[in-house]
Amino acid sequence: MALALINLNFVNLILSYLGLTFFVLFMLENVKFIESPGGYSYLLLFLISSIIVLIIGNGLRYLRRFNYSFAFLFIFIIYFVYVYLLSSFDVDSLKQATIGTTGGILFSFLCGLFCSLLIANIYQISWQNYSLSKLSFILYLFLLAIMVLNAREAFSLYLSDVRKDVFLISSQFGNYQRPAAFMFMTFMVAVSLAAMHLSLPKSLGRFSLLICTCLLGVLSYQFMMLSQLIGSNSGMVTVFGFLIVYLTLLSILRFFNRDLDDIEVFRLSFLIFSKVGLKYVIYLPLILFLVFWGVLYFVSKQNIDFDSLRIFGYGSNVSSIETRLALLNNFILHFSYNPLFGNMIVEKLTTGDGTYIHSLFALLPHLGIVGTILFLIFLKYVFNAFKSAKLNPSGSYCVYLNKYYVVYRVLGMTSVIIFCTFSAFFTWLPLWYACGLFGMSFIDGEKLRYE
């Protein structure tokens, strides 16, 4: 009986990693070929393998308890669809905004949700069997290697098409937002699996941790330079920021884990006002400084002129930040058009296509006060659910109850929201992917109920 269970867990573990691998391959296929989106066979295999894992791994038990964040997300999406149709009467455009792979909030959320459940399944198997835990880490390193090799292939492919005057491919044609978002989402998968392994009772040894961190560093650098090659500042900044999230988590779990073990109920305020938060007033700037200068060092070693990068405005006095700040002048005009319910095409009706503010605050003019309140209530229940994490790694096989992993989820979710607040539209794919990956808390029916 025990042997049969181990064999089933082995198959389940392999299928879980296959599912994540198919998802990553879909993402990276669209990074390599930005002018011809594809890889949909990988996406289909990801969905099929995820469903199989949920069935044979008894993953459906996580759906037994009602989650209020799901309820308000459902209400928000219904409202979003209603306002969209009322504003434009464009069903094709609505399809792209909901289930499309370029800007579909429902598509992105469900991908994050499936990835979250696959990671939870991997955690449970690794928690129950130390041998399978070691196998899990080996499979994770293989997945990291696949990411690094594909990123390197994409970089080499684009480097042959780079312009002579600036560090930018000739055939870009403005199609940079989708691949930049996919790179960030891929990096979130890589860091999430690292955080999951760090949250196990028998965490990674020093050598394993060194290999993992080095590969994540290489992957992040490749994604950052790829983002500059295709002309995306957001791709570079988000990956850089999420590397900081990983290093912050790593230092918390390695140096301040006793402070974390002492708390009974996790709250967001713990990361700000506790001993850990006070220590990070010193440590976080140091981490930022080291990573920033590390990136600059490797850029200079490749003989890339800083003035040829988009992040530095291609050597001009105008940056993308200044361009986006100029759009703030349109906010009041757009919001006043229909302040209560909003209008999804308000910029077309007033100042012209693409003149909306690139910020999460775009909720107000596009979905009005009503839609913004619904979204904020959804976020409230997302963060409330983090309080369900009351146990140390040895206390439960459920990753959603693990205090160590919830620190990562809070850091990850908060960083994505902050970035979206300052420079991305509210239908930004990584935001909704993060809501599925970090924001949903699934508790086994036998475990504690959360608010």
TrEMBL record:
<feature type="transmembrane region" description="Helical">
    <location>
        <begin position="236"/>
        <end position="256"/>
    </location>
</feature>
<keyword id="KW-1133">Transmembrane helix</keyword>
<feature type="transmembrane region" description="Helical">
    <location>
        <begin position="40"/>
        <end position="60"/>
    </location>
</feature>
<feature type="transmembrane region" description="Helical">
    <location>
        <begin position="356"/>
        <end position="383"/>
    </location>
</feature>
<feature type="transmembrane region" description="Helical">
    <location>
        <begin position="7"/>
        <end position="28"/>
    </location>
</feature>
<feature type="transmembrane region" description="Helical">
    <location>
        <begin position="137"/>
        <end position="160"/>
    </location>
</feature>
<protein>
    <recommendedName>
        <fullName>O-antigen polymerase</fullName>
    </recommendedName>
</protein>
<feature type="transmembrane region" description="Helical">
    <location>
        <begin position="180"/>
        <end position="200"/>
    </location>
</feature>
<feature type="transmembrane region" description="Helical">
    <location>
        <begin position="277"/>
        <end position="299"/>
    </location>
</feature>
<feature type="transmembrane region" description="Helical">
    <location>
        <begin position="207"/>
        <end position="230"/>
    </location>
</feature>
<feature type="transmembrane region" description="Helical">
    <location>
        <begin position="105"/>
        <end position="125"/>
    </location>
</feature>
<feature type="transmembrane region" description="Helical">
    <location>
        <begin position="404"/>
        <end position="429"/>
    </location>
</feature>
<keyword id="KW-0812">Transmembrane</keyword>
<feature type="transmembrane region" description="Helical">
    <location>
        <begin position="67"/>
        <end position="85"/>
    </location>
</feature>
<keyword id="KW-0472">Membrane</keyword>
